[in-house]
Amino acid sequence: MKCTRCSGLMVTDHLLDMQESYVPMWMRGLRCVACGNIEDPLIHYNRMMHEARRIRRRMSRTAHPLAAQAQAA
User: Fold this and answer.
1) For 44, what's the count of Cα atoms within 13 Å in the CB-facing half-sphere?
2) What are the residues facing 39 on neighbouring strands?
3) 11-69 pLDDT, tens per residue?
């Protein structure tokens, strides 16, 4: 798999999550050997949701001028 930041090699790594719970939790994720970028299922989900919101905002901004032009005509 390729890194989303630098296109480097991603390897499976065992990550320790100490912030989300009172008990440290181990989880599996991917780490880039070149830049150190880490991706796990939660990070991937949050990035997808952020991108979807960004696209929705962009589309709503472009939809408003068209609606205004249609009402003016």
Assistant:
1) 9
2) 30
3) 999 988 777 667 667 888 999 999 999 998 888 899 999 999 999 888 887 766 555 45
Q: What is the CA 27 to chain-centroid distance, rounded?
A: 18
**Tokens representing residue 72 in the block:** 């003016």
Distance CA 39, CA 34 (A): 14
Task: Show Cβ contacts of residue 39 under 8 Å, excluding neighbours closer than 6 positions.
Answer: 4, 10, 29, 30, 31
Give the 3-state secondary structure of residue 36: coil
pLDDT at 27: 84
CA dihedral 55, 59, 61, 67 (to 10 degrees): -170
Q: Provide the residue ranges of all domains of the chain, joining segments of one domain with +.
A: 10-60
Query: Residue type at 73?
Result: A
